[in-house]
Design brief:
Strand content: 35-45%
CATH topology: STM4215-like
CATH class: Alpha Beta
Oligomer: single chain
Number of helices: 3
Number of domains: 1
Shape: elongated
Length: 147
């Protein structure tokens, strides 16, 4: 269930933007160099799920939206910042109310700046967009096996 949702979400974002599964790239600055050449991009991270009933669970994912500028010129950095805001908006428009793998439509909860740092000659900004969806299973969850 969760894997089908995440796979569908990544494939859908990849239609227009670079999107990958998150593997801890933001855990420290040295790992940020790994993604610098693919920017702007979106990284998808499963955060949590809560069972709603035997057939459904409410899942939360974070989308890490990464964008960078390589100029110290304030005017160019300002233009890049505006393009970052447009990039965030385009991600929202792309995924809002979409469904993947037997899910309810995606709800966007909050977008928040996570990192604003100089990394290897670039000024990197990372925003976290929290999304939720209820994911339905065609087979009920079993609390235990009885015979």
């Amino acid at each position: 269930m969760l894997s089908a949702f995440q796979t569908g979400l990544i494939e859908h974002i990849n239609l227009t933007h670079t999107c990958k599964e998150y593997f801890g790239e933001l855990s420290d600055k040295s790992r940020l160099k790994m993604v610098k050449n693919d920017l702007p991009m979106v990284l998808v991270d499963f955060v949590s799920s809560d069972a709603e009933d035997a057939y459904a669970e409410a899942a939360t994912f974070n989308l890490y939206i990464l964008h960078a500028t390589y100029s110290k010129n304030e005017e160019l950095r300002s233009k890049t910042n505006l393009s970052l805001l447009d990039f965030i908006h385009s991600i929202k428009r792309l995924i809002v109310q979409q469904s993947f793998g037997y899910s309810s439509p995606i709800e966007i909860k909050k977008t928040k700046k996570m990192i604003d740092a100089a990394v290897d000659g670039a000024y990197l900004s990372v925003y976290t967009m929290s999304i939720t969806a209820t994911i339905y299973d065609t087979q009920p969850l079993q609390e235990g096996i009885t015979e």
